[in-house]
Amino acid sequence: MLIACASTKINRARQLSIDAEELAAVGRMEEAIDLYLQAANDRKQIDAPDYGFVESMYGQAGILSFQLGNYQNAIHYFQEGLENKSIYRENGDSESSFYNGIALSYEKLGSNRKAIEYFRLSNQYETSLAERSHRRF
Predict the structure, then answer these.
(1) What is the pLDDT of residues 88-128, one digit of tens each?
(2) Residues with Cβ < 8 Å from 30, sequence gap 6 or more?
(3) In Å, what is the CA distance from 8 to each residue of 2, 46, 52, 77, 82?
(4) Cα–Cα distance between 66 and 131 in angstroms, integer?
(5) How far is CA 56 from each of CA 101, 103, 108, 110, 114, rounded to the nearest angstrom?
(6) Residue bearing the bigger pLDDT, 26 or 137
(7) Average pLDDT score over residue span 32-36
(8) Which of 49, 63, 84, 90 has its CA 20 to 30 A from that of 17?
(9) Which residues are CB-neighbours of 133 under 8 A, at least 6 positions away?
(10) How far is residue 58 from each of residues 5, 39, 61, 78, measured CA to CA in Å?
């Protein structure tokens, strides 16, 4: 019974994310944000949530909120994405993107000190990622 319930939530979350993407493509961004958040919540409610998926859903909600000019919401969603990042990821790529989104949102709000703080965090992850990539070669 638990496996069936988890499978249902996984399938529902996947379909919600597909529906959200389609809504965003036709400019229905607020509705898309709602579906991305529902998808994230569905995945968080199962015993073994896929934090990479959850992180991605918050990232999409952050991007759409930014595009709509809802910078406070964008900051919130990017921070949620950071809090739900996949513990299995070894790179800092998503962290850099989320910190950059937060920085850009603060910049749009006129909070330049906060923007600089988050641009620096973003740059730290990009530098770390570049260093790790360079070591592999």
Answers:
(1) 455 555 788 999 999 999 999 999 999 999 999 988 876 55
(2) 68
(3) 10, 10, 18, 25, 26
(4) 30
(5) 13, 18, 23, 27, 23
(6) 26
(7) 98
(8) 90
(9) none
(10) 23, 9, 5, 6
pLDDT at 87: 53
Both structure tokens of 2: 């638990």
Alpha helices in the chain (DSSP H): 2-25, 29-44, 51-68, 71-83, 93-108, 112-136
* pTM exceeds 0.70, yes or no: yes
Six-digit token pair at 63?
A: 């991007």
Pick from 22, 62, 56, 63: which is nearest to 39 by CA? 56
| pLDDT for res 95 | 85
Length of the chain: 137
